[in-house]
Amino acid sequence: MDKDAVAEVLKEIGVLLELKGENPFKTRAYVNGARTLEGLTEPLETLIQEERLGEVKGIGKALVEKITELVETGELEYYTNLKASIPAGLIEMLDVQGMGPKKVKALHDKLGIESIEALEAACEAGQVAELDGFGKKSEEKILESIAFKRQHASHHHRHKMLIAAEPILDDLRSHPDVIRCDIAGSLRRGKEVSGDIDFLVSAKDSADIIEAFTTRDGILSVLAAGGTKASVLLEGGIQADLRVVEDSEFASALAYFTGSKEHNIVMRQRAIDRGLRLNEYGLFKSTEETRDPELRLDCKTEEDIFAALDLTYVPPELREDRGEFDAAENGDIPRLIEWTDLKGSLHNHSNWSDGHESLEEIAEHMSGLGLAYWAVTDHSKASFQANGLDEARVEKQLKEIAAVNQKLKDAGNSFRLLSGIEVDVLKKGLDFEDDLLAQLEVVVASLHVAGSDEKDNTKRLIAAAENPHVHMLGHLSGRLLLERAPQKLNQQAVIDACAETGTWIELNANPYRLDLDWRHWQYAKSRGVKCVINCDAHRAEHAGFLRIGTAIARKGWLAKEDVVNTLPLKQLKKQLAKKRN
DNA sequence: GCCGTTTTCGGCCCGACTGTTTTCAGTCG
Prior knowledge:
The chain has 581 residues and is an alpha/beta fold. Helices cover 43% and strands 14% of the residues. The mean pLDDT is 92. It binds one DNA strand of 29 nucleotides through α2, α4, α7, α9 and α14.
């Protein structure tokens, strides 16, 4: 079992223990352990073999034993027994608004409720309101939440959130009463999916801002509206929250509402260690509960707060308690990549396979955006459903790309199309022979049809990485966010193979993929593996994915020099030639 | 369950809100 699968088991143990009513700090220890595993920059197998796993902070004796059992046998008796003792439906019930472990447990103990359906029926029958700690209102809220969950997905892809959020942000910023305004929450942290959009505003007077926010076009319903906060439901079932604060509180409120929760916990502990207290209202010279302005340190910006806690600034994308505190203490926070650093994309499609535009149209559009190059990597013949190219069509397309480039050159335009292929990684090997691949400037190898055997899938991808003509692996895990889980695969083993062979790994910037996942990039970077942020564009407007992919790369701690397609064309070509030599 | 030059036991982040309560437990972010 690989470390991600182990982490998933530990997280589930945490949830199960909560439902059992275990000590909350014990449940947290499991969740912390899971997150620690995800962030390891050394292979888990090595740590186990060398008996160094227990030296990792957050992993003690009990977790070492359990993790070792999982890695070595793929199973864990403790987990199997725990799972068997708790009905699966209880976990699902935690997703209902207002339902936490205690309430789920009470409903199970007293009414024998084990599923959302049973919960709904009990509410409708009025049984829930009879219980201690519940009432008529609880019953109504539970029914409302179940209905809402059925109608709307609980999370939304990043591009949908940005499209919904940015016009609102613009309007808030142009409101005369608004002093400062920003998006907070997971959207600001660059997360691949978010549950809601958080807006933070500082203003002298909040009433008019709340009014404007709750009455704008495109709002399905107002969920709550008070003096300083409001929640609305936008079209598409997206929830948006607004919080208005005093300008003197803006920095601490922005830090607080940006999170993550885990990051905030460490920040507050650092404050305590220095005899201070940090909350959303400020950083105070007191360890007692206070909002006294006299005791408040003057922090106008988030930078000031970090500085007061002896840290350099931590960009929002890194605030996940995955090593940012050590780095910020030592001045080792990298200068993260900006999307304007990118010069092109190396995995894209045209109307030769399942893309929308012709080669000429693509060149015109991408050149117009100010990019320097754009690789055309249509599907190979095994992807029949996508109109994949056979050998003869590849040869023909090569000539057409040369013709388009000649035209650009004659017109004095330095933009270039690069020839290429997204070659299928099949059970028997790559879909094309080496001599054909050698003729193409960019070769992306992608596993489109994975088997059910983890070892076999892993082996196939490692073999692809070992091919000297393959520059990079495309959308490694094959996941579709909120739709399809990753393929059965030992991603760490594939990353190791890429490190050894000098193969790049794509960060597929399609908002449904964002694959390789940001959680793996710190490890890949530590092994010296280079990243390529690719649009996997099927339409010209997909060039905009570069911005989303960059947010994920930043979350993975990547700097400009870690990403190959920040290079100008000449240097990129040199790097492309490197592996083949 | 984890952690520790003030500790191997007794801590473990913080505040608001909600609905249920006469003072608070549970949930949420």
